[in-house]
Amino acid sequence: MKALSIRQPWAWLIVNGHKDIENRSWPTRFRGPVLIHAAKGMTSAEYNDAYFFALDQGTTIPHFNDLERGGIVGQATVTGCCDDCLSPWFFGKFGFELADAKPLPFLPYKGQLGFFDIDYQELAHG
User: How far apart are CA 105 and CA 124, in angstroms?
Assistant: First the structure.
C-alpha cells in the first residue's frame, strides 16, 4: 500500500477528519487509499503555527507531547490533486484532496520522501 509522510500535527488533523487537503510543492496523479505516516520531526514553531491555524478552523489539537511520531497513524483516500481550492486548509502550490480519513493503531515505521510502499497488513500482524 502507498504511504505518505506528513509532519505532525498536520497528520493528526488529516486522520481525525479535520484537514481535507495535503499541501505539496509537486502534483500527483495517484488516486486511492494511502497510509498516513507521521514524520518523526516536529519543532515547537511548527506545532504552534498549526495549533493556532487549527484553532481558527474550530479544532483543538492534542498537546505537543501527545502526538505520535515516527510511524503510521492513519489512512485516507486521495481523490484528486488541485492547484486551486476553496478549502481553508489549502495553502500549497498543489493540494492532494483527501476523503474517508481515519486513524489506525500506531505502528512505528521509518518515513520516506514522496509516496512510498508499505505492506501494512504484514507489519501490523508480524
Answer: 9
Residue range 57-115, pLDDT digits in tens: 999 999 999 999 999 999 999 999 999 999 999 998 999 999 999 999 999 999 999 99
Task: Quote the DSSP letter at residue 98.
Answer: E
98 class by beta-carbon count within 10 Å (0-12 exposed, 13-18 middle, 19+ buried): buried
Cell numbers of 61, please?
A: 489539537
State the cell numbers at 11: 497528520
What Cα–Cα distance (Å) separates residue 105 from each residue in 4, 111, 119? Answer: 16, 16, 15
Helices (H), the chain: 10-15, 44-56, 120-125
* Three cell numbers written together for 1: 500500500
Q: How confident is the model over 33-46, as pLDDT tens digits?
A: 999 999 999 999 99
Cell numbers at residue 87, please?
A: 478549502
- Between CA 119 and CA 85 the distance in angstroms is 32
